[in-house]
Design brief:
Blueprint (H helix, E strand, L loop, with lengths): L2 H6 L4 H11 L4 H10 L7 E11 L4 E7 L8 E3 L10 H20 L15 E6 L40 H9 L1 H20 L3 H7 L1 E10 L5 E10 L14 H14 L2 E3 L11 E3 L6 E4 L11 H11 L17 H6 L4 H14 L21 E3 L7 H20 L13 E11 L3 H26 L10
Antiparallel strand pairs: 1-2, 1-3, 1-11, 4-6, 4-9, 5-6, 5-10, 7-8
Protein name: Replication initiation protein
InterPro entries: RepSA (IPR046828), RepSA_streptomyces (IPR048241)
Pfam families: RepSA
Length: 468
């Protein structure tokens, strides 16, 4: 692209100047390669250092690498941030990993540690929500809202209180803050309810069955967290063993309803700060439980649909409600950041409650509207782990590198041992203005190629059996 074309593209002078500097540098091709290897990461980590590959038996140095020869003297690696608002490229990778993790616990994936026979295990897709903290603008079955208006699907007032002065902002952020505890108590009560319905002691129920789950958190428009969870019955040794005959879909559904109803978390009053009543936190009445059918059998809620839905929300956080995706220092900053009224009031409630409940760290998590839990979690036996999926990717790239360097593959030569000595130091993160422009364009090219490949797959007769 010529200087005139870059100017016509609307680049600001600083970006244009830096881009021209990069384009004229001797390491431009290698810089582009580094950025492409990160997937067009928005804010890559910069490392200095190197590695040395040795053969301990012969004390021979087989390969050395040092960042001194790299553009800028650094190696750029992907930031790995799961938030799409921070880094769309890394968030896409995280969403893909979450998809495969959830799907492996639904369809089975022998290469990921789950047998295909688990498709016959009873499993449901459950959504547990927060209670009401006051009436909000909504679209009840496309009927007019309580305010008398028939809101459009993208109306900005959806989820905001009809009367902000009467909305329980303190209760809302305390509920978010304790949502993980509510989930923990739910899993405890669920196992108790299962045992009671099976007519067994809790010990006997554990010896005969296991409950596995994978869940993700999502923010509703009103700023309250709710959880989507795949909950599955297994045998005593997890997915590799069939559940007992009494472990039916109906029993699981009834137990989930009963367990959710029982959960209570009490936040004690603090009269010193003006909070004279206890808060009794519980799940909302909108509990949705749907059985998951095997993909391709005509069921409305399929394995692939569930995995895709969970993965979709794994990269989103409170910023979907209008708040910001990083900590906020004080209330004045909310005005500068132009945070809308409703999320601003929720953040301010976190700050007001912080002194009364310092162990809850509400100020530190104010930008998350009080929520401080993990966005995606799973039980140990549900399926593979995100770490294992990342390791597979790392092993694949390491094998590519060994092939390119002509180094032996340890799997082909088990008698040979390679020793890799590495020394790395953090040298910062992010791009220069010109690098940011390059990264954005490379990321765009990757997305285009990905969509093209996906459309080509859809033209195949058996695409629906392949996953998306």
């Amino acid at each position: 692209m010529t200087h005139a074309a870059l100017t016509a593209a609307g680049l600001d002078p600083a970006t244009l100047s830096d881009l021209l500097r990069l384009a004229g540098s001797p390491g431009f091709d290698r810089l582009t390669d580094q950025i492409r290897r990160t997937g067009g990461c928005t804010a890559p980590i910069r490392l200095t250092g190197g590695t040395k590959t040795l053969d301990p038996a012969t004390r021979t140095v087989l390969h050395t690498y040092n960042t001194d020869a790299e553009p800028g003297g650094v190696l750029r690696v992907a930031c790995g941030n799961r938030r799409a608002s921070r880094c769309p490229s890394c968030a896409w990778t995280y969403a893909g990993d979450t998809y495969h993790l959830i799907r492996a616990g639904l369809t089975g994936a022998p290469d990921k540690g789950t047998p295909e026979t688990l498709r016959d295990h009873p499993r449901v897709f459950a959504t547990l929500t927060a209670p009401s903290f006051g009436p909000v603008h909504n679209r009840p079955d496309d009927r007019p809202c309580r305010c008398g208006t028939r809101h459009a699907e993208d109306a900005p007032e959806l989820g905001t209180p009809l009367d902000p002065s009467a909305y329980d902002y303190a209760g809302a952020v305390l509920w978010n803050n304790h949502a993980s505890e509510l989930w923990r108590y739910f899993t405890i009560y669920l196992r108790r309810e299962i045992a009671a319905r099976a007519g067994l002691t809790q010990k006997a129920a554990r010896e005969q069955s296991r409950v596995s789950f994978g869940k993700v958190a999502e923010y509703q428009k009103r700023g309250a967290v709710h959880f989507h969870a795949v909950i599955r019955f297994d045998g005593p040794d997890g997915p590799h063993t069939p559940p007992p005959t009494w472990a039916t879909l109906d029993l699981l559904t009834d137990a989930i309803h009963a367990a959710a109803t029982r959960v209570r978390v009490v936040v004690p009053a603090n009269e010193e700060y003006g909070f004279v009543d206890d808060w009794v936190l519980k799940w909302g009445t909108q509990l949705d439980i749907q059985p998951i059918g095997a993909f391709g059998h005509g069921e409305e809620l399929t394995e692939q649909a569930v995995a895709a839905y969970v993965a979709k929300y794994a990269t989103k956080a409170a910023e979907t409600t209008g708040t910001v995706d990083r900590p906020v220092g004080n209330k004045e900053a909310l005005i500068l950041l132009d945070v809308p009224d409703h999320p601003r009031r929720l953040i301010e409630a976190c700050m007001d409650l912080d002194a009364a409940y310092p162990d809850r760290r509400l100020r530190a998590w104010a930008h998350m509207l009080g929520f401080r839990g993990h966005f995606s979690t799973k039980s140990r036996a549900y399926s593979t782990t995100l770490g294992a999926l990342r390791q597979v990717r790392a092993d694949y790239r390491a094998a590519q590198q060994r092939t390119a360097l002509g180094l032996p593959d340890p799997d082909d030569h088990p008698e040979s041992t390679l020793l890799v000595v590495a020394h790395w130091a953090y040298a910062g993160h992010g791009h220069t203005p010109g690098e940011s422009w390059l990264a954005a364009n490379i990321a765009g090219d990757i997305r285009t190629n990905r969509e093209t490949a996906r459309e080509a797959l859809r033209d195949l007769p058996d695409y629906d059996d392949m996953g998306d």
